[in-house]
Amino acid sequence: MTAKERAARDARDTDAMRAGEAAAAGLREALARVGLVFPSLQSGFPVNGTGRVELGGCNAGIATKLAEVLNTAADALPELRANAQ
Q: Which of 31, 84, 83, 33 is nearest to 62 (CA)?
């Protein structure tokens, strides 16, 4: 790999890492709005130039509340549903 190729890869990975950090922060804030906290939520190392978010673990109560919030949102906003056209 040439120096130019390495520099391009590094720039891509930096952009992807920033995207992952921004996505993790946005998700953390959105979850907090509905009273949910995922203690291990963080950005992850980019994969193939794409930012990643590690959701980590949570207890059963948090998972249940998250499911309730998502189902309520899907009921209120049909365009959010996976089978929406």
A: 31
pLDDT higher than threshold 90 for residue 16? yes
The two tokens of residue 71 are: 């189902």
The Cα–Cα gap between 23 and 74 comes to 21
The secondary structure element, H or E, covering residue 46 is: strand 42-47
Query: What integer pLDDT is reported at residue 85 of this predicted model?
Result: 55
Q: How far apart are CA 49 and CA 73, in angstroms?
A: 31
Strand partners, 47: 50
CB of 32 within 8 A of CB of 65?
A: no
What is the tally of helices (H) and strands (E) in the chain?
2, 2
Look up the pTM and report it: 0.77
The model's pLDDT over 30-45, given as tens digits with 9 standing for 90+, comes to 999 988 889 899 999 9
